[in-house]
Amino acid sequence: MVKVITYGTYDLLHYGHIKLLERAKALGDYLIVGVTADDFDRQRGKINVQQTLEERVAAVKATGIADKIIVEEYEGQKIDDIKRYEVDIFTVGSDWEGYFDYLNEFCKVVYLPRTQGVSSSDLRAEKGSVKIGMLGYSSFLDKVYNESKFVNAVNVTALCSSDFTKLEEVQKEISFSTDCYGAMLDNVDAVYIHSHPTLHYDEICHALKKGKHVLCESPIALQKKQYDELIQLAEKNNLILMEAIRTAYMLAYSRLLLIVKSGKIGKVVSVDATCTSLRTYGNFGEKSKKWGSMEGWGPTALLPIFQILGTDYTEINFFTVEDKSYPGTDAFTKVNLNYPDVTATIKVGTGVKSEGELIVSGTKGYIYVPAPWWKTDYFEVRYENPENNKRQFYQLEGDGIRYELVEFAHAIQNGNAEFYINRNVTKAIVGVMEKFRNRNC
Question: Could you confirm whether domain 251-395 is CATH 3.40.50.720?
């Protein structure tokens, strides 16, 4: 019996996939089809897949062509599978010609002609993309625009700013730019907001009342009452209001949370997060209001604390150093949060530099994430006996913004904006920001 094996993502299974599977089956007597796992696709930078692994496997199975379906989960698995299943022929489409020649050491490699004129990418494009408008005045919007180019499901088509001095380059690339927020909203499906936190509530309200989905940099609001109002408005209008903390959408960070929750380091007793940068405010528009340390870094530093320890802290205190160059903003803030039997600390700074690490301490071991931990692609699980330590590596493309945009598009499609950051966490972050602003009252 001649065994044949082939692999693919098989997203939005189409005629071209089926023809390729039929040709693969014709090469032998028994066809094994490997379907790529969701995590494996993300690790390879394939972030535009719209269907889940379960849906893709079911679609391949429904064709009746495959004799066996397996899941491809790691780099190099093809060699293991060829040996394990005693495969005679490996085959893929001709667009990979030459790439898999190294497998000739283990079996015969055959490149099959692709069916012209059809692809999953084309089908995803036909389904339409979300037209997004960007609102803000920081050069960070350049990054967002450039990252959006990697996401099939979104298309940044408009830009609104009260100060374009740091947005001249991106302004040239976007067809519609204006200083009128309402005019921009009339031309998009959704809005990404990266403005000063004091403006978020009004800007989100305006967008939701106009029937637009919202992705807003955290904090979404500066009062819990305001946050509740925004959620009610989004629900009333059947819209997505999603918090933009890019760390939450990175694969390594989500795996870190799963390891903690599974008890690998025992009971967590402390979480310590540090986020600092020596900012010159050069990336802000000349007439624009500047961020302080808590406004810029606070939500990111608070994210792992609330996702690991929960939101029911019993005590909070702040130590702050004012930024004398910009009165009313903080150059450095340390926040201590105490729970009944655990504790947490964050240190954030725009005028102070420290090691930007994350440490999660448990009764059996601890997790260490080196600087800059908010761009997580690597962390270590450490124990008393160093021989038991585990190092975890995950692919991170760009600054992680593209993953955030992918999940925003998914949230619009399936109506769930809480998969990565639930509302309790978002509201707790808003609550800390509210306490910080009222600390001297």
Answer: no
Q: What is the reported pLDDT for 431? A: 98
Residue-wise pLDDT tens digits, 391-402: 999 888 888 899
- Residue 159 has what pLDDT? 97
Give residue for tokens 């494009």: 125
Query: With b meaning 16 or more CB within 10 Å and e meaning fewer, what string describes 273-298?
Result: bbbbbebebeebbeebbbbbbbbbbb
Residue range 63-90, pLDDT digits in tens: 999 999 999 998 899 999 999 999 999 9
Which residues, given as ranges, of the chain have pLDDT below 70? 45, 116-128, 279-288, 441
Those residues with Cβ within 8 angstroms of residue 411's Cβ, 6 or more apart along the chain or in another chain: 240, 242, 417, 419
Which CATH architecture group holds 3-120? 3-Layer(aba) Sandwich (3.40)
For domain 122-245, the CATH class is alpha beta
Q: How far apart are CA 270 and CA 91, in angstroms?
A: 51
Surface-to-core class of residue 129, CB atoms within 10 Å of its CB (0-12 exposed, 13-18 middle, 19+ buried):
middle
The pairing of beta strand 378-383 with beta strand 365-369: antiparallel
**Token pair 């997505």: residue:** 240
Rounded distance between C-alpha atoms, residue 315 and residue 338, angstroms: 5
Same fold, 122-245 and 251-395: no
